[in-house]
Amino acid sequence: MSKIRKFFDKLKPERSSNLKVVALCVLTATTFWVLNALNKDDYTTVVTQSIVFLYDQDEFMAVDELPKSINIQINGNGWDLLRKYFRFQSTPFPIQLEDPSERGYVLTRELQRELSENLTPTQLVGIVQDTVKFKIDKIVSRKIKIELDTADNILSKNFRFAGPITIDPEIVTVTGAISVLQELDGILVIGIGEENVNKNFSKLLPLNLRKDFRNYLKLEDQAVLVEFEVVEFIEGIMELPITKRYFPANISIDEKETTVSLEYLVDERELEAFQKLDLEAIINYNDRNGEDSTVNVSLNKNPPYLEIVAFDPPNFKLRYE
Fold first, then answer.
1. Quick one: CA dihedral 199, 202, 206, 209, positive or negative?
2. Are the C-beta atoms of 60 and 101 separated by less than 8 Å?
3. pTM
4. Which residue has the higher pLDDT, 221 or 23?
5. Nearest CA among 175, 180, 176, 203 for reference residue 190
6. What is the pLDDT of residues 53-62, one digit of tens each?
7. CB–CB of 262/303 below 8 Å?
8. Alpha-carbon distance values, 106 to 46, 53, 103, 221 (Å)
């Protein structure tokens, strides 16, 4: 603009005045042409028509963002088309859905008659797309089971669960979109929010849904009581005599090997019973590995309160005479 002003300033007064008159005439002529063109009928163009879905939101829930508009082709006066193009005085066209969960789309041919009545004074030529897709689910309630996440070891080293984990209530009601609810598969897994537990546990834990579920599901209960008892297993190492079983006369192991070292864990509550056990390291010829001619070590007794950590050596090489 400053360059144009400087250009006119350099001109002689008479010439500058003439150019201004010419420019004003061009602008006036252009304005009259545009106004005259907009007053004409029988223009056709494609515009965006905003839409809104109407349905019972107490019975149904959208699980994906609903379409907000459709593209339509209209015919009419230039002024009317201009208003439509820039959405002047535009109100969303309502699409009534009786049971939106029955099918996830509306055929646009079903909308043409009512939409035409809403477009006056312009006329509807057609709707660009043949369907309008959406995802709206029925709202239902289901019973689901609460389980504690024990995939990661939440107990301290050498601690074990001393009995079953109790959850109260174990079954809760969840309400929401059926397709999202089905992803739970009837189970809600919760964590205790702690690590290295080494004593009996009793705590009221909040029920939290996955972040992407929270807009679509609602739990009837907000918390459950989780309780369990723990027990410590004591570490130990002992030497055990070797007992051979079912060995043929011509097969043996190194005669120098007469004992095996056992590394174990034992339930602290059963220490007295453990001390009374007459344990032996068994090498059973029938359990030999034919590929490398070795036989693994096992224990003659294996009560539930005893955990075998390792044998040293874990196996023996067979010697054939």
1. positive
2. yes
3. 0.69
4. 221
5. 203
6. 999 999 999 9
7. no
8. 20, 11, 8, 37
